[in-house]
Amino acid sequence: RAKEAGRGRWTLFDPKENARAVSRYAVSVRMPTALDRGEFFIDYQPMIDLSNGAMTGVEALVRWRHPQLGVLGPEEFVGVAEETGLIMPLGRWVLEQACEQAAEWVAAFGDRAPKLSVNLAVRQARNAGLVADIERVLRTTGLDPSMLQLEITESTVVGPEDEALKALHALVDMGVSLAVDDFGTGWSNLAYLRDLPVSNLKIAGSFVGDLHDPAKDTHLGWRIVSGLVSLAHTLGLSVTAEGVESRADAERLRLMGCDLAQGWHFGRPVRPAEIARRIAEADPERAAGTAPGAGPEGVD
Ligand code: C2E
Ligand code: MG
Ligand code: MG
Ligand code: MG
Known about the structure:
Residues 24-283 form the EAL domain. This is Diguanylate cyclase. By secondary structure, the protein is α/β, with parallel strands linked by helices. Helices cover 48% and strands 17% of the residues. The chain contains 13 helices and nine strands. It has helices spanning 2-10, 15-34, 74-84, 87-109, 122-126, 130-141, 163-174, 192-195, 205-210, 218-234, 247-255, 272-282, 284-288, and strands at residues 40-49, 55-66, 70-72, 115-119, 148-152, 177-183, 200-203, 238-241, 260-261. The chain has an eight-stranded mixed β-barrel with strand order 1-2-4-5-6-7-8-9, surrounded by five helices. It is globular and about 50 Å long. The structure holds ligand C2E and magnesium ion (3 copies).
């Protein structure tokens, strides 16, 4: 009986919610030391120019090899990192690590190296030291500012008087470019586009993914995507579709004039050696020989 009562009480909790709470705790307890222990690593996902199929960019996506929980994706810990402030050292580490990697690709492959795109947390964009941090990272890694794009979200800039705007303008003056990530999901006032020196809009994967949700109107979904592409072009911006999972979607996006695409159809986020292999493979001369940096996949 007691057992049954216990079990009955247990069902008051959603077991999934509970599991999440536990791992959130595990995550927040270990995170402060995880950076020093070298438990984070970065995968890179190809961004493809739809007009010619070339991999012109890669997005750095952070992961955490947690000793008990296995490899965690950013959805599991970036939120906690933002709440606790750990996003600052973590974000700095990602920038440093990714710029170092991108500079290595430039050294090995010259102008065929992909441009690097790094996600910037809201807190990072609001931090007074941001511009100096990025200046320093570019200097120490030797990466040209034109090879770096920062992805911000619609919630990063809240108004024309926003302090973050100054920093973002300074970065663009340095030659770094800006993209708006998850564009169209933020319920935001689009007027921010007049104040923000962005050059690319990334259409959230949820728009493209929803095109295959049988419960949703596919025709309308495509018209929204097509409208976002037009909006970007009207503003003189390039546009990237995220979450492209099929050849048919890629073709349709290409036909509507979408400039870039990212998604499983073109490649999942992978270890840097795999990116190097793809760059080398795209070049007929180098593909015959051995490409630098394209060794077997290792741990980091
Ligand atoms: P995001 O910047 O919008 O990145 C795209 C996410 O979509 C990635 O998830 C990627 O793995 C996933 N994705 C790519 N192609 C497909 C596809 O075809 N289908 C589906 N279903 N998903 C696809 P991931 O790696 O889990 O990252 C989630 C989010 O975490 C990112 O969304 C970004 O907002 C954040 N994030 C990742 N790395 C960092 C970082 O270094 N700093 C900060 N602040 N945030 C990061
Ligand atoms: Mg992103
Ligand atoms: Mg996105
Ligand atoms: Mg996202």
